[in-house]
């Protein structure tokens, strides 16, 4: 049985007054720089509705159907209940709890930038919302029994509206699905012709680790196929309540030999379920329940809660690096994704990520080592040449440079020509030594040489035989 819309109407008249239709455009409809931001709000509503649908095995798609008169949005999330009707007709921030990302808060009012009278058809409810807060019963529309339909009649005098919405839908892209957990498909069409179709598939790889594949097709554009590894960490408020997850997403590709590798992304914006305008300067993507500005496109960097989210992301980053190492994915290319440039991150919102990266590399075996495995910055050394790495094994390197013990060369892919910023980071930030043939020669003591076999001594002479300038000094040993 439908809810009493008139009672909600009268309640909202008492609460907001009768002039809300005049002041609404100033306070609600035009609060976003980009008018098509409402598309993300509707996706957030659908994601939350699907998350509340228990034991649902049906469609997890969201469809946008646009023509000159209206935009129709449909999904199969939990049908509207009384809280939803009250919430979507209100001006409070939201009826959602802290873990929900879009249960009809003030963000839904952004549809009024394009429409004067949106309609909701869900479950037993069929109503329009006039003047932002006044529900009124309307005739049902044709829809599936479990389907929720939102109709947004477009303002007839808005000449640019349709073109703007088309542009907004085309900007969604397959990556808009990356951090969602409920929506598996987004489709959009114009005048009945399919223009974009984005799909997501996720497979668990371990506790709080999932492999996510997103595929996208747009009219006239090549197919997009992206693979990601998404690592998650639950975040709790001060009262212990879960408020969602911080997440780190690593872009995955195949190298020339067909091996899986982590690759840096060209551009990374902070995601709060959907992208914000905040550039992170990272080679991976981070997402979390950050507190945003009212328009949801920006994030106050000094907000205490946001600083907590950054700290939680730092902890997750360390956990994900360990996982990548154990899965043999933490190579030199993967390291180039990390916050390495001290100048870029000093004073940044994400300086914490730079600091935790430095600390963990100093303490744990996370730097790829020559010959396999990983080494800490303290026990690792850079070699100027491949021949030097071949000549000195871990015990010999330790004897020459540390007075005993074992040291390891870092992987030869970390070099001035292949990964210049990473090499500079190891030397300047982690204070790792780089050995050269010139530095090696004075360390070759008689005691050390007498402890080596003939085969190694022969290799030593062959090594210095290629170092013409040093060869005369070898005879003094």
Shape: elongated
Mean pLDDT: 89
Share of helix among residues? 25-40%
Q: Into which percentage range does the β-strand content fall?
A: 15-25%
Q: Radius of gyration from the CA trace? A: 29 Å
Poorly predicted parts: 93-104
Say how many strands there are. 20
Strand-helix topology:
Layout: H1 5-16, H2 20-29, H3 38-51, E1 61-66, E2 70-75, H4 82-88, E3 119-122, E4 125-130, E5 134-137, E6 148-153, H5 161-170, E7 185-190, E8 193-206, E9 209-218, E10 224-236, E11 242-254, E12 260-263, E13 269-272, E14 274-279, E15 285-287, H6 304-326, H7 332-335, H8 342-345, H9 351-363, E16 367-368, E17 374-375, E18 380-383, H10 386-391, H11 394-401, E19 408-409, H12 420-428, E20 434-435, H13 437-440, H14 446-450, H15 454-465, H16 471-474
Parallel strand pairs: 1-7, 18-19, 18-20
Antiparallel strand pairs: 1-2, 2-6, 3-4, 3-6, 4-5, 7-8, 8-9, 9-10, 10-11, 11-12, 11-15, 13-14, 16-17
């Amino acid at each position: 049985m439908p809810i009493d819309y008139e009672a909600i109407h009268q309640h909202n008249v008492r609460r907001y007054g009768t002039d809300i239709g005049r002041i609404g455009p100033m306070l609600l409809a035009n609060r976003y720089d980009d008018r098509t931001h409402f598309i993300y709000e509707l996706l957030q509503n659908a994601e939350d509705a699907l998350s509340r649908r228990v034991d649902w095995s049906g469609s997890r798609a969201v469809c946008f159907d646009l023509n000159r008169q209206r935009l129709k949005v449909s999904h199969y999330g939990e049908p509207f209940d009384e809280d939803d009707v009250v919430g979507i007709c209100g001006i409070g921030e939201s009826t959602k709890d802290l873990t929900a990302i879009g249960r009809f808060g003030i963000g839904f009012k952004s549809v009024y930038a394009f429409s004067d009278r949106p309609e909701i058809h869900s479950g037993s409810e069929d109503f329009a919302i006039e003047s932002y807060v006044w529900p009124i019963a309307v005739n049902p529309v044709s829809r599936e029994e479990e389907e929720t339909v939102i109709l947004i009649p477009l303002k007839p005098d808005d000449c640019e509206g349709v073109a703007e919405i088309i542009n907004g839908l085309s900007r969604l892209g397959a990556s808009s699905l990356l951090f969602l957990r409920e929506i598996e498909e987004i489709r959009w069409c114009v005048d009945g012709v399919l223009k974009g179709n984005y799909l997501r598939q996720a497979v668990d790889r371990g506790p709080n680790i999932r492999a996510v594949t997103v595929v996208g097709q747009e009219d006239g554009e090549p197919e997009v196929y992206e693979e990601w590894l998404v690592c998650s960490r639950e975040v709790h408020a001060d009262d212990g309540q879960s408020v969602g997850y911080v997440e780190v997403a690593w872009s995955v590709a195949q190298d020339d030999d067909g091996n899986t590798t982590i690759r840096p992304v060209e551009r990374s914006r902070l995601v709060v379920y959907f992208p914000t305008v905040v550039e992170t300067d990272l080679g991976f993507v981070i997402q979390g329940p950050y507190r945003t500005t009212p328009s949801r496109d920006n994030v106050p960097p000094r907000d205490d809660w946001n600083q907590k989210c950054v700290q939680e992301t730092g902890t997750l980053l360390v956990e994900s690096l360990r996982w990548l190492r154990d899965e043999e994915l933490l190579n030199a290319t993967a390291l180039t994704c990390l916050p390495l440039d001290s100048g870029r991150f000093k004073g940044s919102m994400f300086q914490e990520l730079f600091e935790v990266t430095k600390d963990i590399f100093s303490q744990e075996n996370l730097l790829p080592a020559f010959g396999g495995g990983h080494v800490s910055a303290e026990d690792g050394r850079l070699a100027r040449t491949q021949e030097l790495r071949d000549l000195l094994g871990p015990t010999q390197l330790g004897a020459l440079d540390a007075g005993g013990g074992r040291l390891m060369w870092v992987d030869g892919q970390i070099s001035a020509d292949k990964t210049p910023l990473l090499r500079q980071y190891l030397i300047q930030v982690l204070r790792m030594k780089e050995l050269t043939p010139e530095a090696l020669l004075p360390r070759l003591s008689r005691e050390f040489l007498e402890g080596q076999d003939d085969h190694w001594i022969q290799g030593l002479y062959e090594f210095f035989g290629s170092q013409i300038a040093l060869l005369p000094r070898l005879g003094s040993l």
